[in-house]
């Protein structure tokens, strides 16, 4: 449990020191169990929202209550070729913001580092508020998602180059894996549009008027993020189509080879079939009939070879 008092100075405090009558606001970074304990003594959150902090694999969403806004968000990780959501929750009030997670979340750690070490931030240079901290978190989420989209695009680029060099069915598994990762990314990013629109509506007036302009920016960034995601989806479709086209071309080349081989051997099979019939054939009594038949087959093969070469089939 970490509790910070924020105004001009940032100070870590104990839970007993929280006083909403003071001209400060608070940031609490808690686990679900710690939230349950504090909710009994300090806050009066809806029990369903507290319970949701303990569940996993939820879709990102936002709910408005009389005195606070509740958000479910996913901080995405891309490790060892797998996109995995790292879920956390936010309670936003007029004088507090609470982040709840079962374990450390990268974005929350970055926020803590920036606040405590007084790193340069345009957002916080004009004063801090719970709404601005929420803006910071959403902005970092979007940047993180952009980074993952770029990494997946690089994977798709690499796959496309390998497919063009040597189309092989082993790339089917790589393409299916990539599509699955993009589906996970899409499932986590798509609800952000709904969150952005609802935060702008500010139904309960929790977001202060001075910060509402920041959420116009967030909405614009979310729309651009979704456009980038859709572009990635279309690109993967093109890579898959290129793979299918290359496999089809490879199959056609193989069928062409089989056809040419069959065309070479068909006349030879005809000749051997004729001379293999049980009838009196004049050539069988010739002294050089055997060599004649071999020469005929060689001549036919040569004619076919020259014909195929001129037609550029070989």
What does this structure look like?
It is a multi-pass membrane protein. InterPro entries: CorA_cytoplasmic_dom, CorA_TM1_TM2, MgTranspt_CorA/ZnTranspt_ZntB. Its main location: membrane. GO terms for molecular function: cobalt ion binding; cobalt ion transmembrane transporter activity; magnesium ion binding; magnesium ion transmembrane transporter activity. The chain has two domains: 2-248, CorA soluble domain-like (Beta Polymerase, domain 2, 2-Layer Sandwich); 249-310, Up-down Bundle (Methane Monooxygenase Hydroxylase, Chain G, domain 1). Helices cover 59% and strands 15% of the residues. The chain contains nine helices and seven strands, in the order βββααββββααααααα. It has helices spanning 32-41, 47-52, 106-116, 122-125, 130-165, 170-189, 191-201, 212-275, 289-310, and strands at 2-6, 10-13, 25-30, 61-64, 69-79, 82-92, 96-100. A seven-stranded mixed beta sheet has the order 2-1-3-7-6-5-4. α5 (130-165) packs antiparallel against α6, α5 (130-165) packs parallel to α8 and α6 (170-189) packs antiparallel against α8. The relative contact order is 0.09.
